[in-house]
Design goal:
Blueprint: H1 4-11, H2 18-25, H3 33-49, E1 55-57, E2 60-73, E3 76-79, E4 81-82, E5 89-99, E6 102-103, H4 108-112, E7 116-117, E8 128-132, H5 137-145, E9 150-154, E10 184-188, H6 190-201, E11 205-218, E12 221-226, E13 231-241, H7 249-268, E14 275-282, H8 291-299, H9 301-307, E15 308-313, E16 326-329, H10 335-346, E17 351-353, E18 370-371, H11 380-386, H12 412-431, H13 439-457, H14 464-485, H15 495-516, H16 550-579
Parallel strand pairs: 5-8, 8-9, 9-10, 13-14, 13-15, 15-18, 16-17
Antiparallel strand pairs: 1-12, 2-3, 2-11, 4-10, 5-11, 6-7, 12-14
Helix pairs in contact: 1-12, 2-7, 7-12, 10-12, 13-14, 14-16, 15-16
């Protein structure tokens, strides 16, 4: 049930402030840093006019700005959209075409992966590959490794989609630079793509021209902090991107408006907020692979590490026909809480999924419990009826990342409902005496994953130590749940309550990274699909691993299990110490 404070705040939500922002953004292309700066000023000025204080950071981040592109093959010429972070060929490059068949992605995970490519070991070195799908990082990296000099992504519909093709998350560091794309990548619509596929089958060539400008750009980050009354140092982070492709109403003007209204309402009701809420609008999402949120994660890493209770992403809420809460990204420990919020606010049932390595989830390597990315979406049956293919936003509307993402994609009634959900969820976490996250659910997920990996590798490797450590921590968490039930009637500032909440944050710092990252703390993993317990996922390839490589596989699994067991045992000690 919603609290009286939540109900009062939700009653204050209206579209009077946020809808005019959407209308303004529908006239403002937010790709180039100059337009982004105007958009940041719009956000800041409108909030300040309503008495909400705004702090604007102005970092310099690395961006890639797509310009014009075209493809010419004999008498045939078509428009194309260069992918951000791809190599520029302003004078054109001519090379033979190579058609590599691929299946179109059915969901976001497939969009970011290599996908289902059927290449039959064909020769693509020195060629321009034409292949079905989006110009996403996994597939681009695969073709680059095989020696292609370019890729033409044949998109599923009548519009080519903008996007970014690098696996590098945010501004590259020295570890990331070798993964920066070294080939040209453009997208074309389906009819033009089919013509190019036909030419490739005939052994023809193509001339690819593209313009992509890279560099360091000042990119404002407006932020609002609503201080908590009882424990102001700890906070919930609510965030979303305000740059876009073209005017980007569904992705993400509606999200920017949601953040604005939640900021206004929580500021109005700040006397009922026990812990702080920070709200941030990111630049560089589209042209820098989450460069804005990555900068924030880097710049405020220690504060986030020590004090952030949860991060909540807001991307593409309130879109046309998006009446269901299915395929909602969240971490296991947050699912029961999120389900209760969606049930109490919208009267709907939540169907959750594992968060994708996408959508400004720039905080996994810090280890922060996270929920939401895309929230409401249209029913699967409606998508099938409309013949819509999978996209990465806009409530599943295929205007996503095209010039047609305009006012008709936004829906006032759905947007207002999503605003209520975001406001209730953020306020619920900030005001909970004990953080409402159940890490027993996380460990149940670990157990299922370990069973799956054990079955795949059989007797060649024993995940027993990890399973034992998982069971021991789960037992300790059962005791911890009993212990914290007796604390919920106490004040937020009670020492035992503070100690319990510090333990919950520490659990996230230990368990989130082993489940979502391969890299070290405070760095950023690639924008590629990350399986559960990723250090142990190679066990799934045991059946196809050549005998001469099995020793390498077993060595990898030993190291991965050591990492997991250490985290689980450290977590058990954290829980036991909190109850001492």
């Amino acid at each position: 049930m919603l609290t009286e404070a939540q109900t009062s705040a939700l009653d204050s939500i209206s579209l009077d402030l946020p809808w005019p922002l959407i209308e303004r953004f529908s006239t403002l292309q937010r790709e180039h840093p100059d337009d982004v700066r105007v958009a940041a000023e719009e956000i800041s000025a409108r909030l300040r006019a309503h008495g909400v204080p705004v702090e604007v950071h102005d970092p310099e981040v690395f961006l890639s700005l797509p310009g014009a592109a075209s493809l010419t093959a004999g008498d045939f010429t078509c428009r194309a959209k260069p992918m951000a972070m791809s190599v520029s060929f302003p004078d054109g490059v001519t090379a033979p075409l190579a058609y590599v068949p691929a299946r179109y992605a059915r969901n976001a995970d497939e969009m970011f992966s290599k996908g289902f490519v059927s290449d039959d070991d064909m020769e693509i070195a020195g060629r321009i590959v034409v292949s079905e799908g989006f110009g996403m990082p996994g597939k681009v990296a695969y073709f680059e490794q095989r020696g292609a000099i370019g890729m033409i992504a044949v998109n599923p519909g009548r519009n080519p989609h903008w996007g970014i093709c690098t696996t590098v998350w945010g501004t590259p560091d020295l570890r990331d630079l070798p993964r920066k794309p070294k080939i040209a990548v453009v997208a074309v619509n389906n009819p033009d793509g089919q013509a190019l596929i036909a030419r490739a089958r005939e052994g023809g060539d193509v001339t690819l021209r593209s313009v992509v400008t890279e560099g360091w750009y000042r990119s404002p980050i407006p932020t609002v902090t609503i201080p908590g009354t009882d424990e102001p140092d700890t906070f919930v982070l609510l965030h979303g991107h305000y740059d876009s492709w073209d005017v980007g109403v569904g992705d993400n003007a509606v999200g920017d408006a949601t953040l604005m209204e939640v900021a206004r309402v929580l500021w109005l009701h700040r006397a009922q907020l026990k812990r702080s809420v920070r709200i941030a609008w990111w630049p560089g999402h589209s042209t820098g692979r989450y460069a804005g949120s990555t900068w924030f994660a880097d710049r405020f890493a220690i504060d986030l590490y020590e004090n952030c209770i949860a991060q909540v992403n807001c991307d593409s809420p309130g879109c046309r026909w998006a009446t269901e809460y299915i395929d909602v990204s969240l971490m296991d420990e947050t699912e029961a809480f999120c389900a209760s919020i969606i049930r109490d606010v919208a009267g709907k049932t939540l169907h959750a999924e594992r968060p994708h390595q996408a959508g400004d989830y720039s905080f996994n390597n810090i280890g922060i419990s996270s929920f939401f990315m895309l929230l409401s979406t249209m029913p699967h049956e409606l998508r099938e009826k409309l013949g819509y293919y999978a996209v990465g936003g806009c409530g599943a509307n295929i205007e996503w990342h095209t010039e047609e993402d305009r006012m008709h994609v936004a829906d006032k009634e759905i947007l207002q409902m999503d605003m209520r959900i975001y406001c209730a969820a953020v306020m619920g976490v900030a005001n909970a005496t004990i953080a409402p996250f159940d890490f027993q659910a996380t460990l149940d997920g670990f157990a299922r994953t370990l069973d799956k990996y054990q079955q795949a590798i059989g007797s060649a490797f024993d995940f027993g130590p990890a399973r034992d450590a998982n069971r021991e921590l789960r037992a300790a968490l059962g005791d911890f749940a009993e212990y914290t039930r007796d604390l919920v009637t106490l004040d937020v500032g009670n020492p035992a309550v503070r100690r319990a909440n510090r333990a919950i944050r520490r659990l996230a710092r230990l368990l989130v990274p082993v489940n979502f990252t391969r890299g070290p703390e405070f760095f950023h993993d690639p924008a590629e699909t990350t399986p559960p317990l990723p250090d142990l996922a190679p066990a799934l390839a045991a059946a196809t691993t050549p005998p001469e490589s099995s020793g390498f596989l077993l060595t990898h699994l030993m190291r991965g299990q050591n990492r997991l067991v250490a985290a689980l045992r450290d977590a058990r000690r954290v829980v036991q110490d909190a109850m001492a």
